[in-house]
Amino acid sequence: MKKLLLFLGLFVVSGVQSASAQTWEDAYAVPNMLGDGGLLQPNLEQLNSINSIVYNLQQHTTKICENNSVIPRDRLGFHFDSLQTVQVGQDGIAQSPTRSRNLQEYRFWGEKTFLDENLSLDLIVPVYYSTDPNIDTIAKIDNPTPLAGQFGDLAFGLKALVWEDADKAYSAGVRVEAPTGPDFLLTNTVIPIDSFEMDAWFFTPWIGGQWTPGTNWFASGFLSYRLNSGSQNNFFNQAGQNFPFRQPTYLYADFAVGRWIVQREGQGGLTSLAPVLELHYTTTPTIGEQRGTGGTYETGQLFGHTDYLNITGGLNGTFNDAWQFGIGGALPLRTGAISGPNNFSWNTDRTFSWALLANLNYYFR
Fold first, then answer.
1. What confidence tens digit (pLDDT) does each residue in 241-288 have?
2. H-type helices in the chain, by residue range?
3. Is the peptide bond between 145 and the residue preceding it cis, with omega within 30 degrees of 0?
């Protein structure tokens, strides 16, 4: 890990010397990606003592491609995801065992450039309406899983422009996610169950590129790898023991292509508009660990090798050369499924049925 970050730092520093910054008003500025609804890190808890009630305690992750550009920018931003039919739990005794909910994600951005706009630092503040981290009543146990508003893992990062010419640019960076989100607690006065201390840090080094092979077409892409700082702690009350567990690592590959149908740089009102098509792939090079004593915590082995492939379509545009907006929808292209006793089934290669996405950014100097 240290060697990887050292190599990335040397690569960034050496590249900055030959790069020159591009401003948003340039005719070939490439809009920020919409993303694909982010990553919902699955955390399954199966309670064998209550006839295979299963919770999926969601951890939300801000992917590098979401509302991001290859070029460092001075901006304030906002990103919204509405994720439809997310599988959040299952009750083995119910006639309709699978429980699904619609979840929402709200992320607030700040990005500031330095060194003649060749470097930037960003800060992302996430708020989610998601699975309740505190399951503390019999009613919540019988009906997994209720929803609640919650603050997520605060993210910050460094971006460096390492090369740019008239029709292409490349950058590299790293993002850090701090464990500011909630721990998970499954307990009540009748049935003491489990608690999960979600205190690991996450580090995502990445590289990106953008290309404008003419006056109308553009493309961009990101390649990133999400690592964790180590094991987290699961205290299993019924056994009176602590069980360390490590979550999977994730490899992301994201690509977008679009075509401007409006370009009115330097004028008022709508100054650009472009339909865009994005393809997003996520896989698990390491699948995490499993714990199974009296209950079962699953962070990877139950799923095996996970592959998400999502497609996003939308519109991006600018208003008065200062406001950039995007709106679109994402659709999973893979399903994947596993099954087990007591009617247990779970989608391994999709976390939602479809998603509505939106970006809004204000660029300042």
1. 777 778 889 999 999 999 999 988 778 889 999 999 999 999 988 877
2. 2-16, 138-142
3. yes
The CA distance from 334 to 348, in Å, is: 9
Pairing of strands 262-263, 241-245: unpaired
Answer whether residue 10 shows pLDDT above 50: no
**In the prediction, which pLDDT does 240 show?**
65
Tell me the pLDDT tens digit for each residue of 112-138.
999 999 999 999 999 999 988 887 776
Q: 23: which 2 tokens?
A: 């401003």
What is the DSSP code string of 102-130? Answer: EEEEEEEEEEEEETTTTEEEEEEEEEEEE
Positive/negative CA dihedral, 159, 164, 167, 169: negative
Place of tokens 């979600």: 198
**Burial annotation 194-210 (CB, 10 A radius, 16+ → b, else e):** bbbebebebbbbbbbbb
Give me the domain span that covers residue 46.
Answer: 2-363
What's 12's DSSP letter? H
Among 86, 79, 76, 84, residue whose Cα is nearest residue 65 = 79
So what's the pLDDT on residue 351? 86
Query: Can you tell me the distance from the alpha carbon of 159 to that of 363, in angstroms, rounded to the nearest whole number?
Result: 16
Domain of 203, CATH number, reads 2.40.160.40
Instruction: Express each pLDDT in 160-193 by its tens digit.
Output: 999 998 889 999 999 999 999 988 887 764 555 6
Identify the sign of the CA torsion 8, 159, 199, 54.
Answer: negative
